[in-house]
């Protein structure tokens, strides 16, 4: 897991590193500078003019160091240091001194009046005005400067964080006074705000650059937010032992499908079967029998009394666990049957799609869902459950609260899916791609998670691993069929390869 720290925590980790590594602050800055330049070089040639904007703190110190190293590599660089209060951090002052040691450096320090340079589309701006030390929205001269930079056609690369953006909560921020970077190279830890869709316009493409932090400080500093890596998932899976049989790997029940939406049941069932589950039974309305038995001979079918939709809660005793929702429809009889089903279950289940919509309009059911059950809403479904949000950040906080209050695991689906546990932790998966924004993709995820849960993985583990495998399958599918050309069924076809890649 990569920890996602609040920006004030990063400061503590810095301090601990400086004291205990030990390393001089200026050398830590130099490590950040070198990491940035190593990455920058891969993207921008010496054909570009580099225009560096530095602030008074250590983001500015980084910027001045980057200017020096780029000049050393004979890039064409011009530098503006904004110092309205006449105070520079010690590292910023030292990097200014080091920079001015270079002959004929084009350097301007601005105290009050500033005539902005003309910036063309061939220029690359390096934004080092503010980083993790931002403590209020930008205003005055800095706001004007940011607006000017944003108005030019120049490419913008931000150091650590786009200037003006907070690392976490930007609800009260002035959205016009934040750098709109094309790329952001951030140090050591992704910032939570980078994972929110509303901040994509500021952050652009982002990459984490590693600089040496004291491992003890990283291990000991608490956080509720984590980024999941392939290694985390690889160690989740147990080898399948030789003397095992289908009963060893669980019997999942999937309650899904209604007339016109039987495909959702089929996709979910197909994904479940490819997740390693021992057996799968699909509870379907009568109209789905032929389709399911033909399309997925591996699945067993349990028919509802109704021809077109779910009306009677099945006996759940034969099953290890169940998943409910894909393509279910929202008939009143279905709501009643769902209520009955939730009254009968005691072990964690997976709930998705119309099951969530029905719960949103019949809130009593919420209290009947077994604790640690997994809910997989997309943002609109979550809003129906918990009320509308004005930003993804607000929705995330609501999802955390919701998960804690109801003792559930909420998988908030988005470009970066957040898995919120009942303990208040959030696990992010950053694999996957926009090709997965296609009908049926969510049904596939439900099937994978159901299959893992039925095999006995802890609900939170099943959710995190399921999301990661789903994203990996999406990336493999995009590589084969392209983001545009891929469909949800391709995710199922790629699941085997995803397992091979991850484990
Ligand atoms: N481990 C690491 O991640 C490292 C990061 N480094 C870089 O250091 C910056 C953080 O530096 P810091 O000096 O703490 O803060 P800033 O440069 O972001 O801010 C400086 C200064 O600005 C004042 N301020 C805050 N908000 C405003 C505002 N709205 N208007 C005016 N002035 C404001 C505040 O008082 C601060 O003092 C980090 O981002 C990295 O780039 C290091 O290189 C080493 C390791
Ligand atoms: K910055």
From TrEMBL:
A Pfam family that this protein carries is: Carb_kinase
- Give binding positions for K(+): 59, 127, 163
Q: Does the keyword Glycosyltransferase apply?
A: no
Which EC number(s) does the record attach to this protein?
Answer: 4.2.1.136, 5.1.99.6
Q: Which NCBIfam families match?
A: yjeF_cterm (TIGR00196), yjeF_nterm (TIGR00197)
The entry describes its oligomerization and partners as: Homotetramer.
| Name of the featured protein | Bifunctional NAD(P)H-hydrate repair enzyme
**Organism listed in the record:** Parabacteroides faecalis
Q: Which gene encodes it?
A: nnrE
């Amino acid at each position: 897991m990569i920890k996602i720290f609040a920006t004030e925590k990063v400061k503590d980790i810095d301090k601990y590193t400086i004291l205990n590594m030990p390393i001089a602050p200026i050398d830590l800055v130099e490590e950040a500078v070198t990491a940035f330049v190593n990455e920058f070089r891969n993207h921008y040639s010496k054909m570009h003019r580099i225009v560096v904007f530095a602030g008074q703190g250590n983001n500015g110190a980084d910027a001045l160091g980057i200017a020096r190293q780029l000049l050393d590599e004979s890039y064409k660089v011009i530098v503006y240091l904004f110092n309205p209060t006449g105070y520079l951090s010690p590292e910023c002052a030292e990097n200014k001194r080091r920079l001015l040691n270079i002959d004929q450096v084009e350097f301007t320090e601005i105290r009050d009046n500033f005539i902005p340079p003309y910036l063309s589309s061939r220029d690359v701006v390096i934004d080092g005005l503010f980083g993790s030390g931002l403590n209020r929205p930008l205003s005055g001269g800095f706001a004007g400067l940011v607006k000017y930079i944003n108005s030019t056609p120049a490419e913008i690369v931000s150091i650590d964080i786009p200037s003006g953006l907070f690392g976490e909560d930007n609800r009260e921020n002035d959205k016009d006074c934040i750098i709109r970077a094309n790329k952001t190279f951030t140090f050591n830890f992704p910032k939570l705000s980078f994972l929110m869709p509303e901040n994509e316009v500021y952050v652009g493409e982002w990459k984490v650059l590693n600089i040496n932090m004291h491992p003890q400080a990283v291990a000991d500093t608490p956080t509720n937010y984590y980024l999941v890596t392939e290694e985390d998932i690889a160690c989740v899976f147990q080898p399948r032992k030789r003397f095992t049989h289908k009963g060893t790997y669980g019997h999942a029940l999937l309650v899904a499908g209604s007339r016109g939406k039987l495909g959702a049941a089929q996709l979910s069932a197909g994904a479940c079967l490819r997740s390693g589950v021992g057996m799968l039974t699909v509870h379907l309305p009568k109209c789905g029998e032929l389709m399911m038995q033909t399309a997925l001979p591996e699945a067993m079918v349990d028919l509802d009394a109704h021809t077109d939709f779910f009306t009677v809660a099945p006996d759940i005793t034969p099953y290890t666990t169940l998943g409910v929702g894909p393509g279910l429809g929202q008939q009143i009889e279905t709501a009643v049957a769902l209520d009955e089903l939730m009254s009968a279950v005691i072990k964690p289940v997976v709930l998705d799609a119309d099951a969530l919509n029905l719960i949103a309009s019949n809130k009593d059911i919420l209290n009947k869902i077994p604790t640690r059950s997994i809910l997989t809403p997309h943002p609109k479904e979550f809003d129906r459950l918990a009320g509308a949000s004005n930003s993804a950040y607000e929705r995330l906080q609501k999802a955390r609260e919701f998960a804690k209050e109801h003792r559930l695991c909420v998988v908030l689906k988005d470009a970066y899916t957040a898995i919120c546990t009942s303990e208040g932790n959030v696990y992010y998966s950053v694999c996957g791609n926009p090709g997965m924004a296609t009908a049926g993709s969510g049904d596939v995820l439900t099937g994978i998670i159901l299959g893992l849960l039925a095999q006995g993985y802890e609900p939170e583990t099943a959710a995190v691993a399921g999301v990661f495998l789903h994203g990996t399958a999406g990336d493999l599918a995009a590589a084969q069929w392209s983001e545009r050309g891929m469909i949800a069924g391709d995710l199922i076809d790629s699941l085997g390869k995803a397992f091979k890649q991850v484990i």
